[in-house]
Write a structure and sequence with these properties.
368 residues; alpha/beta; six-stranded mixed sheet; 18 strands; 31% helix
């Protein structure tokens, strides 16, 4: 699939969802996916025999695509009725060997064997399926709750995708009662928190524009968001320069984690810099302002944060994140770690040493 777009103009009858199965769904299977939409991603991002997972299996279109391309299809579906329909569809197509799991995907993922590719279309927010299962994304009553659930699902997916494996998520920006909702772009941001975001592909459908007087388009496209489960590489030269400046102004900040072990000479490739700090707003507040003035963006559990809110953000958290994207494309991420117990910092600080001019603790630091 070398293009950044895919035009879908027909759903092949040989593997389309049978009309008798469509009619059995309370919502007439209006949100069923196309097998033709999934097959190019299966071919490009996995190998024959690989395991392809759809955590929102729905009517099993992804599993059909995976099996047709010689992969092992695995799906999770929370709605019992749709699970039954999906199994019937697979049986009718002679694909009984595909695996379907009934249950909430976060729970099911906890015991999942590793997979090579995750390929799915997200249940959309505000789609009007009021009778959806309470645990279903369709049932989220607010957009904040919806994004919180998406973040939890991506967190659960991270450890089961093999290193170097891919995750592709279909999402669309929405129009809800005249309000534009950037669902696809918000999901892309959440993906980038845990995976190396690669690009978006555009799926284009044939859909006529029925109202020539409307300023809106026919909304005949959606995005397939492509990311890889690979570690980001820290710009170590930039990190060293920054740390020397930072520790000159904030000597309480000590480097821990993989960057500290790299300073010690261990064969590790740090993806970010972890800093241990005392749980003291009189230090963290000016430090976050110092970082902000140098082009860093602050977040708390993925949510944007301003330095002026540091004191409030510290409540109930044990770290804040600071990220800087340079115009060259290089990135630098700092995790500011602290502990609620005031005794932890001085205990760990007693193990500090200076390596290459940087104060660090190369031994494991348990911050709970």
């Amino acid at each position: 699939m070398p293009n950044s777009w895919l035009h879908l103009d027909a759903n092949q009858d040989t593997h389309a969802l049978d009309h008798t199965l469509t009619s059995s769904d309370p919502f007439a299977a209006r949100d069923r996916g196309w097998v033709e939409q999934m097959r190019p991603f299966v071919r490009e991002l996995s190998q024959p025999g690989d395991r392809v997972l759809d955590p929102f299996a729905g009517f099993a279109s992804t599993l059909v695509a995976a099996c047709q391309e010689g992969r092992q299809g695995v799906g999770i579906e929370i709605e019992a009725g749709r699970l039954h329909t999906a199994r019937q569809r697979l049986n009718d197509l002679g694909l009984e060997h595909a695996t379907l799991i009934h249950g909430d995907c976060e729970t099911a993922l906890a015991n999942m064997e590793p997979v090579d590719l995750v390929l799915t279309s997200l249940p959309y927010f505000g789609c009007g399926m009021e009778s959806a299962h309470p645990g279903q994304l369709y049932g989220a009553g607010s957009y904040a709750h919806y994004l919180q659930k998406v973040r939890g699902i991506l967190k659960a997916l991270k450890p089961i995708i093999k290193p170097g494996g891919y995750i592709v998520v279909g999402a669309e920006n929405l129009q809800l009662d005249g309000l534009w909702v950037p669902q696809a772009w918000d999901v892309a941001r959440l993906l980038a928190e845990r995976f190396r975001f690669i690009e978006e592909r555009v799926i284009v459908y044939d859909r006529p524009h029925t109202d020539s007087t409307s300023p809106h388009s026919n909304r005949a496209h959606e995005y397939m968001l492509v990311a890889q489960n690979s570690a980001r590489v820290c710009d170590r030269d930039a990190a060293m320069s920054l740390l020397k400046l930072l520790q000159a102004d904030f000597p309480q900040a000590m480097v821990i984690g993989s960057f500290a072990r790299w300073l010690k000479g261990e064969a590790v490739t740090p993806s970010d810099v972890d800093l241990l700090l005392p749980n003291d707003s009189h230090i963290l507040q000016p430090l976050t302002q110092w970082l902000e003035s140098r082009g860093f963006q602050l977040t708390r559990w993925g949510a944007p944060l301003q330095a002026t809110m540091t004191t409030q953000a510290m409540a109930g958290a044990n770290y804040l994140r600071a990220e800087r994207l340079a115009a060259t494309g290089s990135t630098l991420t700092l995790d500011l770690a602290f502990h609620a117990d005031p005794q932890v910092y001085p205990q760990l600080a007693g193990k500090a040493e200076t390596r290459q001019g940087i104060i660090c603790i190369s031994e494991p630091a348990d911050l709970g």
